[in-house]
Amino acid sequence: MLVVKNLNSGYGKFHILYDISLECRNGEILAILGPNGAGKTTLLNSVYGLADVYSGVIELGGEDITRLPPHKRVKKGISYVFQMFNVFPNLTVAENLRLVARFAGLNRGEIESSLNEIYELFPILKERQRQVAGTLSGGERQMLALSLGLVRKPRVLLLDEPTAGLAVKYVDTLMEKINLLRKIMNISIVLVEQNVHKALEVADRVMVLVSGRIIYEGTPSDLYTKHDILRLYLGVGEAA
Amino acid sequence: MIETLVGGITLSSILSLMAIGITLLYRTTKVPNFAHASFVTTGIFAAFTLHLFNQPIYLGLLLGFLLSGLEALLLFYLVLEPLRRRKSSIFILMMATLTYDIFLFGLINIYADYLQYTYKATARNIYLAGADFKVLGVQGITVVSVITLVACLFALHIFLNKTVFGTALRAVMENDSLALASGINVSAMLAISWFIAGGLAGVAGALLPLHIMCSPSTGMILIAAMFAASILGGLEQLYGAPVGGFILGLAETLLVTGLSSVLGPWVMTYSGMIPYIALILGLIFCPRGLISIRVRGA
Question: How many angstroms separate the CA atoms of A76 and A69, rounded?
């Protein structure tokens, strides 16, 4: 389980997040929503060790990981899938997966079994395993990016707008896979997403972040009753 | 003519070894490394010291590799990594390599004086060709320099493509943020690249006094040629560096010899201009390197 307590963070002098607390339990999807510039990606960066934490605590399974560098957080079981530039374009699909699995501390047997699981989940990647990642289509590349997050068998998966820029057919497929994952792998997923409806379809709980502060925390069904938040901050129902 | 060509091949091979390191560091750390000059000079003095103590000169390849690799590691961990963590600009990092180079230049001069006064060695005019072996009338350095270049390129290729750490280093070259997010210790990978690049410069330096007269300033004199070869080969193309090295090395040797036979020996005085001209032309007409040029319609 991932726990964040009273987090204040940012980049150097730029204080972005104020007093953020959250919990993401095993097998749960926590959606983080909010307008552009709200600090959603900074929240993921802070959990992963890519932003400066001024105060507060980040715990994984009860262990304080606040001051650990990113490569050590990976070994503790955190995976982060960036929104963009999330695969190594000049490495093959198989090289991408093996490399990430190897540096997560998996042994040879575990790497092979993990790769088989990934290929079962995304058969297209098995077909493309010898292909250089930079030549994959947008959807395939995003599947590979998600797979890079999964191949190291994480306890917590941080997803930064996984559906951004994807064709509709890939959005549905990817969201189905994300929903499936937490069930079969029992992992905690923190999902930052601009596609509000898709995020609320799969999320168990949702947080709305505005200007670095949490303004709402609850269930997706409850959020649908908060018309002001949906309209003002998430752009839902504006046309109506 | 054949002798000139052989000399050109030797110089080109040594220059290529230097340029590979420059390109490798540019690809991994994005820093034009001026300390490469002193890494090369360290190799020169490694070979010279071995010769002075009656040891096999070619053992200097190993000693030069280790010493210059160590110097590069120290530069990375003591200077560049702390600056990188503070998010210093590339310009600051570049100036730091220049400062480190001047520091090493000072140390090398102190060492040269020590050898000169203690052992009466000609540490400011180092030329070891007399101690070299010959194969079918050809200086051993020609054969060794070409074999060393091919062996180093092969080893580098195997390392980058067939080993986990090599693949990780390629990943760092492509996207260091993603590499970090993938659990790769980027700092350690960069350190490996600095050790390899420094080591290759040391190897090149150890070969140099068997081919040309060297001094503590040789690295500094050659730094423009190293950058020119690297830029001509393409700073983003690791395997382009030898292409740049050979073009420059052969141009410098053949052009100067050819021109001096027509215009007179005074031309030799200006041979040092060739790397600068190549550097300027390269930056103007093909800043991404000759390898990036594709034949239209092909």
Answer: 11
B19, B249 contact by CB (below 8 A): no
Cα–Cα distances (Å) from B264 to A161, A221, B250, in that order, read: 69, 90, 20
- Identify whether the C-beta of residue A41 lies closer than 8 Å to the C-beta of residue A83: yes
| Mean pLDDT, residues A128-152 taken together | 89
Q: CB neighbours (10 Å) of residue B172? A: 27
Distances (CA, A) of A53 to A79, A116, B182: 19, 37, 20
8 A C-beta contact, residue A73 and residue B204: no
Domain range for A213: 2-234
Contact criterion met (CB < 8 Å) for A88 and B183? no
Interaxial angle between packed helices B2-29 and B36-52, expressed in degrees from 0 to 180 and rounded to the nearest 10: 130
**C-alpha span between B59 and B70 (Å, rounded):** 17
Residues of B with CB under 8 A from a CB of A: 87, 164, 167-168, 170-171, 174-175, 177-186
Task: Give the three-state DSSP class for A148.
Answer: helix
Nearest CB partner across the interface for A99, out of B87, B168, B185: B168
Residues of B with CB below 8 A from A11's CB? Answer: none
Specify the pLDDT at position B149. 96
Question: Do the domain assignments include residue A115?
Answer: yes
Number of compact structural domains in chain A: 1
Asked if the C-beta of A15 comes within 8 angstroms of chain B's C-beta atoms, the answer is no
Sequence-distant (6+) residues with CB within 8 A of A213 are A18, A19, A20
Q: Which residues, other chains included, contact B177 with Cβ-Cβ below 8 Å and sequence gap of 6+? A: A50, A82, A85
The interface pTM score, or ipTM, of the predicted complex is 0.72
Residue A240 in domain:
no
Above 80 in pLDDT, residue A71?
yes
Interatomic CA distance for residues A104 and A78, integer angstroms = 10
A190 part of a folded domain: yes
Q: Can you give the pTM of this predicted structure?
A: 0.81
Cα separations (Å) of A203 from A35, A126, B105, B141, B238?
Answer: 18, 29, 62, 69, 46
Positive or negative torsion for Cα A83, A89, A94, A97: negative
Nearest-angstrom CA–CA distance, B192 and A139: 35
